[in-house]
Design brief:
The protein has about 475 residues and is α/β, with parallel strands linked by helices. It contains 14 helices and 14 strands. The chain is about 40% helix and about 15% strand. InterPro entries: GH, GH_1_N_CS, Glyco_hydro_1.
Length: about 475
């Protein structure tokens, strides 16, 4: 089927995973710049000071900072209608708490947005995508400190005013709900959990601060330019009960509520749902709020709901049925009905249709899939081609189910495939785990000449966009 006129086909990236130039143009260190390389068997480390001789993949990444014109031209050649990118907060405020922005950083994004416009591409900008200034971690323990709200709002005001005529679509936080699970403390909130500290208390306090900051940003953005469309972004952790045992059903429902719906409810509906209040009480989580916080949440609800979707997982209350799905940070049990990627992520296109319906039924606002893709090992053939049919199959199957969801009545704005150009994996720090339509010559150790070349999927996606989703062959 064809998608509606104006459907936003494109690709998605994050500054910390592809921009590089980590200490150029006045930029300061972000939390991502303090994370070492790793693999799916050897996790990334967080280092409070940079270690000599240690590889930090975000420092150079794939150097979009130096290649942005070439890369954007290739996106234009594919026919992108939109490009999801993030602004690196520390390129604008190097420590995060300065009162005046870094002009050189602002100018860089002016140039990027101008280049996108030249190629007919609408920017979709994530304001904070796992790029909390490390200076704020050192000073306030990141988002665990309420002081960071003011720093974020100042940053938002700066970029909203600077780019009010260049950017229409904004996302306040990437995968804000990652703070509901353990691994998200540092990556999502710049929070360092010391030995003996209650991780959940710190994380949910940080999450509350992000909710308040997001709501303030939405309200401020609409005041600066009423035409802004500002959305939330959730890492949708689609969970199935492993069996029809009522205990499994209830466990899956509770996990969906806390990991997914809590953030959606606060950002779309403007209040903490009852199930969250019960969860906080049972877990001894006492969120410190200031007078007026709940009013701010009501006043700053988002215009649309965006999310990432890669896989589904299963859960069971039976201790005897705990065969874990491998390779992802979200946890969950192996689903016997699904195949898995090279990294153990369970491939479930129909789960995307279910998730789209589930979200839209609850919120009834426009929805956008802003991350979906397959990390795989790509091989360059003797003739220089890269025949990534497995990626084409993955994307085709998901787009088919996405179109089915539209037939079901879901109001879908667009689709931005994750990692449209090869970039550093957030979870493992690898380059070997490739997502892109465009191959970048760089390996896990930082070796390579950074040259770009299109894969087979590049030409396939170009056809998809040109036909507005009708030609998926």
């Amino acid at each position: 089927m064809k998608m509606k006129e104006g459907f936003l086909w494109g690709g998605a990236t994050a500054a910390n995973q592809f921009e590089g130039g980590w200490n150029k143009g006045g930029k300061g260190p972000s939390t991502a710049d303090m994370m070492t390389g790793g693999t799916h068997t050897s996790p990334r480390r967080i280092t409070p000071i940079l270690e000599e001789g240690t590889y930090y993949p975000s420092h150079e990444a794939i150097d979009f900072y130096g290649h942005y014109k070439e890369d954007i031209k290739m996106f234009g050649d594919m026919g992108f209608k939109t490009f999801r990118m993030s602004i690196n907060w520390t390129r604008i405020f190097p420590n995060g708490d300065e009162l005046e922005p870094n002009e050189e950083g602002l100018k860089f994004y002016d140039d990027v947005f101008d280049e996108l416009k030249k190629n007919g591409i609408e920017p979709l900008v994530t304001i904070s995508h796992y790029e909390t200034p490390f200076g704020l971690t050192q000073k306030y323990n990141g988002w665990a400190g309420r002081e960071v709200i003011e720093c974020y709002v100042r940053y938002c005001e700066t970029i909203f005013k600077r780019y009010k005529d260049k950017v229409k679509y904004w996302l306040t936080f990437n995968e804000i709900n990652c703070l509901t699970i353990d691994f998200g403390a540092f990556m999502g909130g710049g929070v360092l959990v010391k030995e003996g500290e209650d991780s959940a208390k710190l994380r949910f306090q940080a999450l509350h601060h992000q909710f308040v900051a997001s709501a303030k940003a939405v309200k401020l953005g609409h005041e600066i330019n009423p035409d802004f469309k500002i959305g939330c972004m959730i890492a949708y952790m689609t969970l199935y009960p492993l069996t029809c045992n009522p205990d499994d059903i209830l466990l899956a429902q509770k996990a969906d509520q806390i990991q997914n719906m809590l953030c959606g409810d606060v950002q779309v509906r403007g209040y903490y749902p009852g199930f969250a209040l019960r969860h906080f009480e049972e877990k001894g989580i006492d969120i410190k709020m200031e007078a007026g916080d709940l009013d701010i949440l009501k006043e700053g609800t988002v215009d649309f709901y965006s999310f990432s979707y890669y896989m589904s997982n299963a859960v069971s209350a039976d201790p005897a049925k705990q065969e874990e799905a491998k390779g992802n940070l979200l946890g969950g049990l192996k689903n016997p009905y699904l195949k898995a990627s090279d990294w153990g992520w369970q491939i479930d296109p129909k789960g995307l249709r279910w998730t789209l319906n589930h979200i839209y039924d609850r919120y009834q606002i426009p929805v956008m899939v802003v991350e979906n893709g397959l990390g795989a090992v790509d091989v360059i053939e003797d003739d220089g081609s890269i025949n990534d049919d497995y990626r084409i199959d993955y994307l085709r199957d998901h787009i088919v189910e996405m179109e089915e969801a539209v037939k079901d009545g879901v109001e879908l704005m667009g689709y931005t495939m994750w990692g449209c150009i090869d970039l550093v994996s957030a979870s493992t720090g690898e380059m070997k785990k490739r997502y892109g339509f465009i191959y970048v010559d760089k390996d896990n150790d930082g070796n390579g000449d950074m040259s770009r070349r299109p894969k087979k999927s590049f030409y396939w996606y170009k056809k998809v966009i040109a036909s507005n989703g009708e030609d998926l062959v």
